[in-house]
Structures are given as structure tokens and as C-alpha cells.
Amino acid sequence: MTVQERTTGPLTTEAGAPVADNQQSQTAGPGGPSLIQDQLLIEKLAHFNRERIPERIVHARGAGAYGTFTVTADVTRYTRAKFLSEVGKQTETFLRFSTVAGNLGAPDAVRDPRGFALKFYTEDGNYDLVGNNTPVFFIRDAIKFPDFIHTQKRDPYTGSQEADNVWDFWGLSPESTHQVTWLLGDRGIPASYRHMNGYGSHTFQWNNEDGEVFWVKYHFKTDQGIQNLTNEEAEILAGKDPDSHQRDLREAIERGDHPSWTVQVQIMPAADAPNYRFNPFDLTKVWPHDDYPPIEIGKLELNRNPENIFAEVEQSIFSPHHFVPGIGPSPDKMLQGRLFSYGDAHRYRVGINADHLPVNRPHATNANTHGRDGVMYDGRHGGRKNYEPNSFDADTKQTDRPLWEPVAVSGVTGDHVTPSHAEDDDFVQAGNLYRLMPEDAKQRLIDTAAGFIAKVSRDDIAQRAIENFRKADEDYGKRLEAAVQALRG
């Protein structure tokens, strides 16, 4: 039975037996205690106690929809991925939007990055592109990720998010200056999920039939136009309608106003990377469009809502290690950590067989593994052998062709600082972003940042944060310092 089908007939137990009475539980006489023999009562209460699975540690609050990706340009010179093999080719997709720091019950209209997790149901299996609505991130190495998220979550003593923790970490991690400028600027609170861009953020590998390697970055440009909320608008909306973004997405699709994004990529020949002016695998930086102009490759449209939020949105799983032939990872240290952490989180949260669920199951091909058993195992393999090599299933064998091309490495193992490029710097791009803003946008950024920094209890934490912005742009830091001093008195 597919998720869209409806079961007809009488109400039944989980085992399919008809229910005689769903209004009264069985008791020992009309006024007596309940009986343990009432298996419907036990089944309903036990199921209710287990209806919630652990929420995601990050990106817990989300909404999703199904759609299609359509190829609009020939990219076969760059990648052998089959779903990108011809103009006009369509692939089914599922896209989950989310906030990052809030829990499952948090409001949508908050100042926070937005997750942009896209699943392509390709003929070669699922390809997951797990990005955000910003092209950069706060840190460049996954070993710092748990520490960063701890600063965004509730303090272990106060039980609240603390400005001290947030700004202490950001001030001591100057590579965050670029992303913080994005977050506290006008695009920090999207008006809806439909009115924001999405980005793969990381650098990925494309490889073609001849084995040539290219490094790529993905951009999803909203066709609805960028729209954002001010702090005041967001505060009102979050209080009046905590589900604002989820509701907006659902209702737009219901009325046939299908949101869409123009999909672009930046493409860098692999030979350019070693001598590029800054590290092209650094997640805290963008590739300037003058260096590598975005090329349109497709159109993404969302056109179908989930039938059940829990089954299809909460239990959906995405992992950046879900690649297909022609696409692979890069040496990006944040991406390398996520290749493990996302799959591991879902194995814990949803279960070892989460890929059996309809929303996660490949569409055009069956997963043909030797993994068996575990929670939710659906018996899909029957009695087939579960080891390799074996002489019973002649077709179940390796292809002898990796999904992506190998990357040369050298040196000794250890905790290495990434080699510097000529223009590696934590502040240049943050300053460039500030200088691109019109005056009114600069003032809103200063007001937002100052209001947040003013909550810090220690002067040294506040001053260190301000100095990072001053290194990005002297005017940025000077105005921010004055605004903080005015608020702190």
C-alpha cells in the first residue's frame, strides 16, 4: 500500500482485527477497574507513548514537499550523473526546509539559518544535497560543530540560549564573521520558505565519462523573489502564527501556486584549485561570481504536499554521503564530517532501516544490500543470501567503477592546519558583504547585532566580537561599538 492510498472498511487493531468498541475500555463490571485483557486499550496507550521519535539535534523544526527537477542545460561535459544526462529530463524530489537551533515546537519566523535538504529520487538511487539558505557557514572544520551548536542551544545551567555563549564562541572563532554578517543582516529572517534561496554551500565533485574532475557549488535562486521580515514583523508573526512558514508552503501548493527555484552551478576545473587565491573548499567563503560565473542547469518545482507530516517530514532522512555516479565529495572538512554525522544521526533517531520508509526509499531502483534485520526490517530480501562473494546470486556484485574520481593525497597523518592560499582571510568577504549593503540595510544590521551583543554580561566578550567586525570593515566595527555602548549605557 502506498502512502497515498486509503484503507476502507471497519476500524481495526494494528493486527487488522475489527474493533467492537472504541469508546469504553473493558472493566471488571460497570464500575470496576480496567482489565489488562483489553488489548485495544493496551495497544493504543503503548502506541501513544511511542508516537514521537527523538527530534533532530539540529534542524528539528521543519516542513517539506514533493516536486520535480527538470534539466534545462547540457552538462554532460562536466558530469556523468544520469539524472543530469539530457535537457528536459525530470527527476522526482523531496525538499525539507528547517530552522537550525529551535526545537520541534519553536516558531518558524525567527532569526536563524534555514536548512535546504533536497532528495533526488534518481535512476541510480537517491542523491541527497543537504544545504542551507546561505552560501557559507560559521565554521570550516566539523570538529568544532558540536561546540558551535552547544552555544546556540540551551545553556546547561540557565536552560535558555545565552548571549554570552553565542558571542564568546563567535568572538573566539573569527572565521564565523562572514556568516554572522549574513545572519544578522536583512536575509536573516526569510518571509517564507518560498521567498529565499537555497545553496549546497559545500564544494562537491563532478566527474564526466572521461574521468575529468570539476569542483562545483550549487545555487537555488527563488523564482518568487527574495522577501524577508524585520525583527518587529517576525516577533509579531512568531507570536500570532508559530507555524507561519509551514502553513504558507502548504497553502501555496494547495492552491496551485507551485514554488520554484532556478538551479545554477559554479564550476571550477580541478586544476584551478591548488593555486586558487583562497582555499576553494573553505565553507566560510564564497567563490566570487567574476571568477566562476553561475551557470543555469535546471528548474526545481514543488507541487505536492505530504499526506502525513510525521511519516514523510519527520521521518525523512537526508545524508550528504548519498551520492550517485558522477558526483562525489571534496576535501571540505565540514563536508567530510557531515558524511558520517548525518547518517549516524538518522540511524539513532529513526532506526537502522529508516531507508525502508516510503519517503526515503529509492524510486527507480531497489536497494540491493546484504544488510538484514533490525528495527522496522520489512523482509524485502526474502531468503536471499546475505554475504558476498557468494555463488548463488550471480548478479549481485560490485561494478568496479567508483561513483567519483580519486583525489591525490600526501604527507603524514595528524592534526594539520589547512595549507594557506594567497588570499586566505577570515574577514575580507565579510567586509565585502557589508560594503555591498545600502545604507539602510547597514543600519538594520548594526541595530540587530548591537541589540544582541548588548546582552553579553562581560565586556571582554563584547569587545572581542566587535573587533572581528572592525577587522572586516572599520566603519562596521566603529558603528557597532557606538551602538553597543549606547545600549549598555
Automatic annotation (TrEMBL):
**SUPFAM superfamilies assigned:** Heme-dependent catalase-like
Question: Pfam families under this entry?
Answer: Catalase (PF00199), Catalase-rel (PF06628)
Keyword annotations from UniProtKB, A to Z: Heme, Hydrogen peroxide, Iron, Metal-binding, Oxidoreductase, Peroxidase
Give the residues annotated as active site.
59, 132
Database matches in PROSITE patterns? CATALASE_1, CATALASE_2, CATALASE_3
Q: Which family does it belong to?
A: Belongs to the catalase family.
Return the protein name.
Catalase
